[in-house]
Amino acid sequence: MHNLPELEALVATARLGSFAAAAQQLGISATMVGRRIQNLEARHGARLLERTTRAQKLTVLGAQFLEQSIRILDELAVLDELSSPAASLKGSLRISAPTTLGVTTLGPAIAEFAKAHPALSVELSLSNRRVDLVAEGYDLAIRVGDLPSSTLVSKRIGTYRLICCASPSWLAAHGEPATPMDLAKGGCIVNSNFNPPDIWHFIDAKGEAIAARISGALQLDNDEAQRTIAQQGGGIACLPVDLVRSDLQDGSLVQLLMDFGTDSMPIHAIYPSRRLLPKRVAAVIEAVAAALSRSDFPISK
Predict the structure, then answer these.
(1) pLDDT-derived band of residue 293, with 50, 70 and 90 as boundaries?
(2) At 6, which helix (H) or strand (E)?
(3) Between 65 and 191, whose confidence is greater?
(4) What is the pLDDT at residue 300?
């Protein structure tokens, strides 16, 4: 028979990295967290955590045990939700999302979602690193781009649109490219998150794809930094529409190559299991998809 407080102690410690952090989240002492995990290990006759003076790290068996513990707690949370009023969402949500999309669209949308459900504790982690949902204890990840094959469940919820732009000062000094092939002449701010970083994708008037090789002396992996550099006359950038929409409207950046369609990537919600999807996860996916739909409108000339 599983002891739920012991499973909760293991999951919190694995997620947060220490007894002290787990204790703070659970509202008990660090000593009690350690005791509950010791009881769990004794009951199953196996060490689940390697303990050091600074942190606790899962053993190989502990990682497998963690996955099943999360599943048990999630399924119990689903059963609890079934007996709750339809409008009531409670428990906790851990969400991972890429930085730029999180800052421009997801952060405000999830803040509104949390405000509408005060009994729900929501944690949003913004990073371009692709987290391990199960091992790191995330309920949901929002990811941009094509997905590698995995056992995780994915649902497309939006489109991430990119646009080429530069400042009026840069264009006055260097001129405006007439075709994507002109980008090979230099002056581009290279995005190292692209694969490969020196190829930007376009669509011509016939609907045919163009893979244009670009050139530039500066390479970065952060969209916000590229935006700032482009605003200051540092070159041509290929950036998300949501990030530069206000810049295009106030004239600090100018859209380029408007006779060519620009690249776009799918946005997916990723979660561990299709079976017994918690209402809180389904609800936040719906809220995020709605926010992405509202933000997805074209830039006018």
Answers:
(1) confident
(2) helix 4-16
(3) 191
(4) 44
SS3 sequence of 64-98: HHHHHHHHHHHHHHHHHHHCCCCCCCCEEEEEEEC
Domain with CATH 3.40.190.290 in the chain: 160-263
Q: Which two tokens stand for residue 135?
A: 């091992």
pLDDT digits (tens, 9 = 90+) for 155-186: 999 988 899 999 999 999 999 999 999 999 99
Whole-model pTM over 0.70:
no
Q: Which residues of the chain are in CATH 1.10.10.10 domains?
A: 1-83
Paired with 201 in beta bridges are 211
Of 220, 249, 213, nearest in space to 235 by CA: 220
CATH topology (fold) of 1-83: Arc Repressor Mutant, subunit A (1.10.10)
DSSP secondary-structure letter at 152? S
> What's the CATH code, domain 160-263?
3.40.190.290
